[in-house]
Every structure is written in structure tokens, then in C-alpha cells.
Amino acid sequence: MLLAIDVGNTNIMLGVYQEEKLVTYWRVSTNRQGTEDEYGILIKNLFHQRGIRDQNIKEMIIATVMPPLRFPLEEMGKKYFKVNPLVVGPGIKTGLNILMDNPKEVGADRIVNAVAGYELYGGPLIIVDFGTATTFCVISEDGSYLGGSIAPGIEIATEALFKKAAKLPRVELVKPSRVLGKDTISSMQSGIFYGFVGQVDGVVRRLCREIGIKPKVIATGGLANLIAKESETIEEVNQFLTLEGLRIINARNRGYK
In what helix (H) or strand (E) does residue 126 lie, and over which residues does it extend? Predict the structure, then answer.
């Protein structure tokens, strides 16, 4: 079995694979000060709840946008599961041609998403990832990573509105019944929700014009389903895209494919 770990700024996504099948998964909060023991005990408890035996984990792969967590998670793999984890970063085999001015600057999550997206859907492709930041990644027809855009994530923007505007409350992120708000809460929900829908469609359309071809547009991340239902450009949502990318990269680096 393979344990795939995707570490984001806000959440960590964990998935257990039996060959190419995702057996189970979890989403937990990112603890930036977490030690190898804290993460090891957490994951062992999650395994226990789903009936997964620790000794069945033979491989582990990690992608993290939190550099301080790389070492404790690597040590956790060695100490608690007796495996030497692969870590997505420079030198690892991805199969992507990264056409950026500085390829090392591209976040591990964006690389992993691009690998999975091209493997599953082909190219050209735009991937919209609704995480702590909202990222847009463009992959060409031949599988080259062309670049993209990064915008503040929905939750960051919503929290900033609450903290910086004295009279505005913290609101639940939901799709409002109408755009025209009749009170403060519904007005905020309308502006946040339809504002981000418009942002996504606007950025995607401009990217399409720049690359001069109509790509397939897929979305992933915690809020993908909410926004995709109203978006005019998102064609499909894949909540497990990053985990699939980790599985594919693991297989490539261990000589399975």
C-alpha cells in the first residue's frame, strides 16, 4: 500500500492506495509546529479507525508547500511505518517539461496537479485549485507546464474582509439565492460567492485567449464543487487530483510506469 500526503497551508490531505485504487482518504488541519511523533500518532489512529494495518504501508510520498514540515514528515515515515518517503521537489521524476523562468519556484502542489491532470485528461488543460490560494495552471497539448496565475483564496479574502472592515461580520460561505443582497449578510455572501465565480471565469477566459486554444478546464480543492456549479468555464471537478498526482509520481520514480 502507498500513503500519499499532500501538505497545504491550511489542510493536509492523506490518501491510501492499493496499487491504483484509492482505498480511503482524510483531510486534517495543518499543524505547522507538528513533530514526527504527533503526526505519526495521528496517522496511526486514523488507520486504526479504518482497519488499515501499519505494516501494510510499503511506500510513502509527500508533497508540501510548508518547508518546515518536510523533515518531521520524512522522519515520521521512517520511525512509524519503516519506509523512506519520496518527497516531491527538485530531482524527482515528474514527466513534465516546466517552461517557467525558474522551475524551482513552482509549488509542489501545482506540479502534482499538473502531472495528474495531463495523465487523466490530456492537454491542453487548465487546472483551477481552490486552496489557501486559488491557483490556475496551464498545461499544453504536449504536456508542458506553461505557467499560470495565483490569487488569494476564498477563505483568506473572506477573513480579511471580516478583520479589516469594522462593521462587517464573519459570514458563512454559501451560494446566496440572489445577487442583489437585502441585508449585510446576504450582500457579503453575494459579493464573495459571485465575485469569485467571476474571478475564475475571467482569468480562465483570458488564459484561453493568451494560449490561443480552447483547453479543458478542471477544478480541485475544498471549495471546487461550490464554485464550479455556477462557473461557466469549469467543466469537471476532481477532488482527488493531487492524490492521484502523488500516486503517479510515486510509480514513475519507483519504476512502475
Answer: strand 125-130
